[in-house]
Amino acid sequence: MGQKVHPIGFRLGISKMHLSHWFAQKEDYSKYLFEDNLLRKTLQKRYNGIEKIEISRKIEDHLEIKIYTEKTDILIGPRGENLTKFQQEIKQILQKHRKNSSRKVRLYVLGSSQTSASASFIADFLIDLLEKRIPYRRALNLLFNRKLKKLQFNGVKIQISGRLNGAEIARREWRREGALPLQTLNANIDYISKQAHTIYGILGIKVWFFHAPTPAGS
């Protein structure tokens, strides 16, 4: 029986950084932890295409949020005209958790390059195809032949589990391309686990993505 280790948690402090940056006293730790989790789950449920959310606190009632997304237009509009509205929406989410609390929220929405990607973007692309009732083999072919051809990476592995194509018995299928050194701590490997809701039930999607090394001097 194998021992499974989370690819990102395995590399924290070496090649991966924490998504929350703050220090809290014992009586405040659970409050901040629940607040971060509520904020991430609510935003990722309302908006598709969010790669990750970084949260940092320097002092009490001061919150800095960085949202990485493939399409910034969905969050702030084509020219950023909805940025203030989106910032107020975040304050309302936090207000439900901590009432009668005035805080300063500094928001950054960052886009990504067309030649780079993450495990989250790949999973969202695959989920969109599967939820449109496209067979999983065809969805994988579209992903590898169209989406991944435009990206720079060293290796990728994708696993789909559940009632594939409406089969009576659930099974697991996976596809891999390139190198994927899961035991190398310095390897920049991104990982995500998501779900696709189809008419046959829920399909589990897991993506391991090995980023290409950054060119020297960039």
TrEMBL record:
GO terms for cellular component: chloroplast; cytosolic small ribosomal subunit. GO terms for molecular function: rRNA binding; structural constituent of ribosome. Residues 35-113 form the KH type-2 domain. The keyword Chloroplast applies. Gene3D superfamilies: 3.30.300.20, Ribosomal protein S3, C-terminal domain. One of its GO terms (biological process) is translation. The keyword Zinc-finger does not apply. Belongs to the universal ribosomal protein uS3 family. PANTHER family: 30S/40S RIBOSOMAL PROTEIN S3, SMALL RIBOSOMAL SUBUNIT PROTEIN US3C. This is Small ribosomal subunit protein uS3c. It comes from Udotea flabellum.
